[in-house]
Specification:
By secondary structure, this protein is an alpha+beta fold. It has eight helices and 15 strands. The strands form three sheets. Strands 1, 2, 4, 5, 8, 9, 11, 13 and 14 form a nine-stranded mixed sheet that branches. Strands 3-7-6 form a three-stranded antiparallel sheet, with no helix packed on it. A hairpin with a 2-residue loop joins strand 1 and strand 2. The protein starts with a strand and ends in a 14-residue tail after the last helix.
Length: about 375
């Protein structure tokens, strides 16, 4: 049984979940030389020991406590006697002979462990039961086995596992040092302290909409170009595309210093203001060019909702695209796309070729 209390620690601009886990291990041990499967086994039952091996002694937050029945066991530091890991603790444990000639022992170990990012278990008994709980709201279960039962909620989680003899990672009996523990890693299972709201992940998700959010300002400017009958140079389109693309770099750089929501608002406001000011100059009509600002605000609000939602992101994206295409089709249904700017282009060409045409002589101008 393990209960983990987690918290977020910061290392520079990165966030890492760490935890303190209270672990209770209960074991029921039986052994028979006839069933050990070893060649010429010789058992020194009086020297039996309970071994706890450690990959990193720094993970021990408090001195472990061990007991066999009502008798306390004194765990002492020693070299890893089973040959799995670097260091270990062990204690002498009394064995009893059962009625059928087997050697039996019961033991329990209480641990307080420090860890980070994940907690995993290795099934090493004929039957292994694991009960895992914690206060982390978004666990990610993975590994050789998934939980038989689990409960998730904003206050934390709980999960239970069962592993039978078919999934035993280690042989029931073996000579110390003869088993490679690394070969048993495929049988590990447990959970990771998944961080669902990560600025780098959110920025990466935002980049998936990059093509769409570069095309939307282009489409809005093109429609204004058609409606206002004012041509925009391709170089101006290029500048607008570059300004719109810089949004993602602004978002990521700001996220490293301020919360994601505030960074998104600052980056979106800066890019929207720049695009609106430049578009008003390119179109030569400030009042009508400012109609691009609501379009930009709507697209960034739509993007933020899609990024913040984990369960409805696809639905939000599909509905947003549908309404965008529908609004464009309805708003442009009366435009003659064969030559939407032909008349305006010819009139502009004639005016430039004959700048004095259509002007009244000085003497004919009304006073």
């Amino acid at each position: 049984e393990a209960h983990a209390k987690a918290e977020i620690r910061k290392r520079g601009i990165h966030q890492v979940p760490v935890y303190r886990a209270a672990v209770e291990i209960h074991t029921d041990f039986t052994a028979s030389l006839q069933e050990a499967g070893l060649t010429n086994p010789q058992a020194l039952w009086d020297e039996a020991r309970l071994c706890l091996e450690l990959a990193d002694p720094r993970s021990i937050a408090e001195l472990p406590r061990a007991a066999s029945g009502e008798e306390s066991l004194q765990l002492r530091s020693d070299q890893a006697s089973l040959g799995f890991l670097k260091r270990g603790l062990s204690a002498a444990i009394p064995l009893k002979t059962s009625a059928n000639g087997r050697m039996e022992a019961q033991a329990s170990i209480s641990l307080s462990l420090n860890g980070a990012q994940s907690i995993r278990f290795l099934p090493s008994g004929e039957n292994t039961q694991v009960k895992l709980s914690g206060d982390w709201p978004s666990p990610s279960f993975y590994g050789y086995r998934l939980p038989n039962d689990r409960k998730l909620g904003p206050e934390g989680f709980s999960a239970s596992y069962f592993s039978d003899d078919s999934s035993q990672a280690l042989p029931a009996a073996f000579v110390a040092g003869s088993v490679n523990i690394h070969e048993a890693r495929d049988y590990l299972f447990g959970m990771a302290f998944h961080v669902p709201v990560d600025v780098y992940l959110q920025t990466h998700r935002a980049l998936r909409y990059a093509i769409l959010f570069i095309l939307i300002p282009f489409a809005a400017l093109f429609l204004l170009e058609v409606i206002l009958k004012r041509r925009i140079h391709p170089l101006q389109y290029l500048f607008i595309g570059l300004a719109d693309s810089i949004f993602y770099l602004l978002l990521l750089s700001l996220c490293e210093h301020i919360p994601f929501g505030a960074a998104f608002i600052v980056a979106a406001s800066a890019v929207s203001a720049l695009l609106t000011i430049y578009a008003s100059a390119a179109l030569g009509d400030k009042r009508k060019a400012f109609f691009i600002l609501p379009a930009l605000a709507a697209q960034y609000a739509y993007l933020y909702c899609a990024l913040e939602s984990q369960d409805y992101a696809l639905l939000i994206g599909a509905l947003g695209l549908f309404f965008l295409i529908a609004a464009t089709m309805i708003g442009t249904r009366k435009i003659n796309w064969y030559s939407p700017m032909a008349k305006a282009g010819r009139a502009e060409a004639i005016r430039r070729a004959n700048p004095d045409e259509g002007r009244l002589p000085e003497e004919e101008k009304p006073s």
